[in-house]
Structure formats: C-alpha cells, structure tokens
Amino acid sequence: MMFEQFKTRAEGVSAEVYRFETKEAALAWLIGFLLREGMADKPQSTALWAECSFLDGMDRDELQRIPGLKFGVTRELAADAKFGISQMEWSLADTGTLVQDSTAIEQRLVSSLPTIHIALVPTNGILPDMPTLLERLHPKESAYIAMITGASRTADIERVLTIGVHGPERLVIVFVDELGGKN
Amino acid sequence: MDNTFKESIHKAVNNANLTGALGKFSEAYKVNRAKAYEGIDFEELRGRIAELKSYAASHLEQLSAQFTQKAEAAGAKVFRTNDPAKVREYILKVAQDNGVKTIVKSKSMATEEIHLNPYLEKAGISVGETDLGEWIIQLAGQTPSHMVMPAIHMTKEEVSDLFSKEVNERLTSDIPRLVKVARNELRPRFLKADMGISGGNIAVAETGSIVLMTNEGNARLVTSLPNIHIALVGIEKLIANYADVAPILKALPRSATAQLLTSYVSIITGPTPNTDGSMKDLHIILMDNRRTEMAADPKFNQALQCIRCASCLNVCPVFRLVGGHVFGKVYTGGIGTILTAWFDELKKSEDIQGLCIQCGACKDVCPSKIDIPDLIMEIRRRLVQKQGLPLLQKAIYSVVNNRKLFHGMLRAASIAGKPFTTGKFVRHLPMFLADLTDGRSLPAIAAEPFRDRFNKIRQPKFKEKAAFYAGCLIDFAYPEMGEALVKVLNKAGIEVVFPEDQTCCGAPARYNGAYEVAAGNAVDNINALLSEDVTYVISACPTCTVALDHEFISTFESLGQTEWIPKARELAGKTVDFSTLVKKLVDEGRLSLKDGKKLGKITYHDSCHLKRTLKVSEQPRELLQKAGYELTEMFECDMCCGMGGSYSLKLPEISAPILQRKLKNIKETGAAVVAMDCPGCVMQIRGGIDQDGAYIQVRHTVELLAEQLKE
Questions:
Q1: What phi and psi values does residue B335 have, to the nearest 5 degrees?
Q2: Residue B397 CB neighbours (<10 A)
Q3: Closest partner residue to A139 among B159, B207, B259, by Cβ?
Q4: Model confidence over B592-610: pLDDT tens digits?
Q5: pTM for this one?
Q6: What's domain B593-706's architecture?
Q7: pLDDT tens-digit series, residues B503-551
Q8: Is B191 exposed, middle or buried (0-12, 13-18, 19+ CB in 10 A)?
Q9: Which of B211, B267, B279, B284 to mutate to test the interface with A (most CBs of A within 10 A)?
Q10: Of B289, B467, B649, B702, which one has the greatest count of Cβ atoms within 10 A?
Q11: Helices (H), strands (E): how many in chain B?
Q12: Hey, do B44-292 and B593-706 end up sharing a CATH topology, with the first three levels equal?
C-alpha cells in the first residue's frame, strides 16, 4: 500500500521507481541500466557509488572492473560523474520523498552533482509521512538531514517547469526488499 | 499619491508581458493550489501554524537564546543583532579573515532586505546568486518582483538576451536550453567558491537547526561545497520545537508553488565535514531589524507568523496586474506592504498600502492566518494618525455624513452633468473627472432618494419588524433595490422601518484610515438603528453589513472607545444581509417563490465582503435557482470586480482592467443575467457592461427575487 502511494507520488514529480526483491536482482538491473545509459571510463560518463549497506558483502574489486564504475567519492570524481549512486534509508509515502542522514559529504556529492542520481532504498524504510519521520530521525543523530523529492526543477523562466537545474535531472529510485530498513 | 508611483503603476499595467505572465500564473495557481491541498484540512493546518508561529513571535528572546545555545553546542557560531549594518560588517569580516574571494548564494530575502550584495561587491568580493530567478535579475541589474519567483516579470526572450551576453554566444529562447546554460555557467562557480551564503526557511530553537528548502538544488551545493557557510535568518523564522517543522513543510510548498514538497529540504544542525576533511565553518546570523519591536505591537505581531510563501501575492487581483516592482525593492504584495512599513519605514508604505483593494482574497489563503487586509488598514490608520487627513478628504467626509446635503450635491452634479448623462448612466465626465468614467459608466443619481420614496410605500402592518439600512448607493442611486427589498419582506410578513437618522456606514472613511470619522458614523448609526424595536437590521449592501456586523466594533476597539462596544455588539447581533435572511424565510416556509418557472441561464458574482467576511455564497445561489434560474458558474466567480468603494476612483488604471477581466468571465458563461448581492458591484459591473455594449442584465438578487414572489 505505502509503496504504491510512494510510487504514484514520486512519479508525479518525474522520478522513476523500480522495485526488486533481492540485492542480486537489483544489482543486475542497475549494471544493465548504467551500461544502457552510457556509463564508460571517460570524462562525464562515470558512475560514482557512495558507501552504503547495500554494498556490504559485495566484491567491490570485481564491480570496479566494469568500466566507469567507481567507489571512493571525492569532490573531483563527483563533479565529473554522470551517475551518482547512494542509499537513502527512509522514504515518505505521502509525498514521494527520500530521506537520508547526509552528514557525510560524500552522500551529498553523489546525489547533487551528477546528472542522474540512483537511490537505493530499503522497502521497509517507507514511512507514512513527515511527522513520523521527524520522530525517527533527530538532529541529535544527524547534522545534515537531506530530503529529496523528485528531480531538480525550476519554473523561474515564464513559469515553465524545467527539470535539471543545479541538481540531477533524473532521479531513479530502486526499492530493494531484502535491504530491510530501519522501520 | 506620488507621481513617480502613479507612473510606475501606469508602466506596469501597460506591460503586456508582465500582466500576461502574472495573469496566467495566478489563474493556474488557484487550481493547482486546491489540488495540492486535496484531502488536507487547511483550516486545521493553518490553525496549528498560526498557533506555533504566534507562540514563537511572543517568545523571540527566549527562543533566540535557546537556539543560540543549541546551535553553539553543535559547533556553529551564532551572531545576533538588531542592526542590518552589523550583519553586513560581520559577513564581510568573516570573508576577509578567511581570504574569501568568491561567494555563492542561495535565495535569501533577508540578504535582499539588508542589500548585502552591493556591500560585499564594493569590498571587492564577487557574489554570485545561484537561484535561477535571482541570477537572472542579478544579471539584469534588477530587484526581485516576487518573493518566491523573483524573475516572474521577465520573458524568455529577455532572459536569452541576458544569458547570451553572459556566455558570449547567441542563444535562442528555448527554456530548457537556457536552464542548461545556467547549470553549466554556475557549476564551476559553486566548485570554486570560498563561501556559501544561504537564508533559512525555519530555525528550530529546540535543536539549533536551520531548515532550507529549494527546488533547484542550489542550497545543497551552497551548504556543501564551500568550506564556509553563513546562514542569515530573520528571527521570525524561529520556532520552538523540532516537531513543528512538519506543519510548515506541509503548508509552505503547497501554498507557494502548489507542490507537495520542494525537491530538496535540508535540516542542518552544526558543522559537517568538508570535502578536504576539515569541518565546515558554520555561522548563523539571527537578524532582528525591528522584528522584536514588531512582536511588541499588539496589531502587527501577527505579521511575524508569515512563512514567506507569497500566496497573498498569487491570489491578489492587484498584484497580478502590477507585479512586484511597483511595491518596492524587497518585499512585495500584501505581506510585503506590511514588512516594508516595518523593516524599511512606515513612510515608504504610504503609496503602496493604497494598492490594496480590501477584497480579502489573501486572508482566505494565508497558511499562517494573518489578517493582511486588516493590517494594511492599520497602516492607513497610523499614517492618518501621524500625518492627518488631507483637507479635501476632510471636506468630503463632512458632506458624506450629512445625508441630505450629500444627496443634494450628488443630484446637483448629475444635473449639471446632464449633457453627459444618457438614460441611467453618466457616460462621460469633463476634464480630470473623466477618469471616473473610463471604461465604466456611473449611475445617474436618483431624482428622489430612497429615504423620500420610502414614505410613499404603503405597507401592511405586521408585528415583526425589520429596520432597513440602505447605504449610500441604494439610497441615492438605486432606490428601486430598496423598494424591492420592502416588497420581499412584506410578503414574508415583516414590516420594514427606515430610521431616518441613519448615515454613511463609515466604510469610505475607515478604508482611508480615517477611523475617527468612521467611529462618528458608527455612533450615529447605532443610535438610529437601535432606536426602533426591531427583530432584524437588514442591509442589501455587504460592505454596509460588514460595517454594522464587524467594523463598528473593531473601529471602537482600535480607538479604545470601549464604552460603545456593548451597543455595537447589540447592533451586530441583529444585523443580517439580504440573502441570508430571505433564505431563512424561505426555509421556514414564510416566503414562497413562483413554481416551475424557466427563467434561463444566470451567473452569479460573489462580492468580496459577502463571500469572505460574511461567508455567504450558497444562499443567493439557492434562492435564484429556486426562483427558476439555471445557474452557470463563471470563471473566478469570487474574484473582486475592481470596485472597492473609492478605490475605483483613486486607482482607475487598476480598477478598469480588473473589471475587464470580470466582464470577460461573465460573457463567457453565455448567461443573459448576472446577479450579485452588492450595489457597489452592480454599479461597477453594470457600468462596464454598458460601455462594453453586451446584452447582459446586471441585477441585484433582491430585484430578481422580488419579481418571482408567489402571490
């Protein structure tokens, strides 16, 4: 139920929403997506993956053999990356919002500088709304709480909605049931 | 009114790009906003926001101290000052101490308020706006015309010219392409900047956090990439509790841009790591600039509840015609008028407060429950208190208050103007008075006012009595409406009395800030209307009804004349508008309308005071349909017609286009009759239709119902 509501809301603000049962299935889809969209080991074509629990138990060396896929986020790499991948722990069903403790700058770099942001989201982390989130996530635990709802947008020229100003022009949300969640 | 101000209005209303863009936006806004609030109890939500913000406004000192302590404990440096000059100096010092050469900024009205950019640039520091709209107006060397959409007054062609110059390349006016250019141009500046400056949408005292909301994502970059971050926050942004963030996040984006949530929300509490491994140098400036003084003002403390959504601009019939620049350089629209009077000076609001037509549309949508029209009236009152009334106006009021003299003079003027009068209208007036008949004919003055005609009406005697309060327009211009009202009430078994000593309701004086005059009117009317033993005091003019029902009381309250309040309340208790009373009489079976009539299509115009102050909108519609009319709603049926009492005389260049829009909406329904409950609206709309030449009858509900009474 909450997933369906989230999906409707997020798609309403031009996000793309997918859902997989296992990490394995999600990873397979993700790699396919990156390659289809032109990931390569050349300027402005790389994918940069920020630390997250999705990567627990995965062989990063093996993954890094895929041309263009990189770990170890720096400002320079993020500024050049076409794809940024990060895990967003919570999501809000009633607004289609993703939420993360973004205290670590790397998390913000991959979700704000690249053209496409891919968010891995534990399905169990879906919360109904903002008040519920504020009960779960307190500034005491996080110096930078970041919420993302859809792609970067503006209507500053003649009120015409235009996607992709300073942040990503595409937000791809991948729910993974197996990731559990802090719910 | 100042000539340069008049000139700026003239320029704005004749700027087709501006009025076109704003007009389209305000029409879409209304629909989209309603959609964004679907399933939400807006009254409950805004009640909560008003409560938490008003608590904060009355505890500014305590919350500032708590915020400071919490933010400092989290590692931020907090600087609090009342003085805009000290804010500028502080920011410059931080910049100079750290060898800052370039600054990127996300949108902040507080920095506009203190004119920060020119100050820093004069000191040799490059300051770049990064919000697309702000960047556009920075390149154009202009100031924001709207608090949320700073460049709404500019066309894509103008933007493409600006950008072309900036990137040295001839660009087309393709909007997605222009946005891409902005992204590419600004990206290196974000990466290079030594300091980021942001505002703050909310400051949470409990946790020392600031909350930033953007759609473009620029605030995330401004607060993440440079090693220094300064947030400039007006202390009215303080709230007590972290949980209180939720209702504001719920209302602000919905009210501002009809979004469920902005694309990005950041809650920042203390420094976070930079990309080079150091910790952010985070400064939060709590700026007062007269806000504490405002909080101590029993009237204006309410304005501190504002969450800066700008919905009061978006629904304003005047703003959508003139845009923001007429209002001044920083805060614009309804709330902007109030903020300018305080953060700048009262004197600066002298002209712009006159732009408010008092239609109340903003009060209806304000998510913080601020009574903006009332606060603007209070500005008027204080201006008059400070500067006194102009001599001419004083003379006018003394005439208006003398009913017999007033009618005599109007009548004399209308006879003197005979060559210009045809049938029921004064079509053209000579010389400077011509403005009054521009786009609208004025009603001819009745040869015999209602007060004289009344004595000739033969009424059956009934036990139940109602006192009729006519008001200027029915008394002098439309006595037939008064006669229709007597006919309707008689049919229901109510005898109408007309207390001769009733005078002007005081609205003209009050709306011009002359509260003493209005209080005098109130006393005279209370004495006249309470002298009769009646069940009801009925009026067929919503502005008069509002005066009797609400404003006598609030005028006395404003002036501290509390001895009159009990009597004013007694009068208010008996006061009722025409449609409400008639609906009641019909429901009680005391009055019947003819059955089975097919009277054709009708459309109904909601008068501002009836709909928004008296909350009456269904009653006249139901009655007209019962009488046999087929109701077709017009677009924006409750948008002001541009009359606004003497407003249409003072600012005809604004009133006329508002009327034209109304006429267009009426005509588009294809109805042969447009009904309304206000003689002022009848005067405005009937006059407009007359000049337009359309075959549409403009009638007061009272006239239409009087024709359909069952014998």
A1: -65, -30
A2: 22
A3: B207
A4: 999 989 999 999 999 999 9
A5: 0.91
A6: 3-Layer(aba) Sandwich (3.40)
A7: 989 988 898 888 998 999 999 999 999 999 999 999 999 999 999 999 9
A8: middle
A9: B267
A10: B702
A11: 36, 21
A12: yes
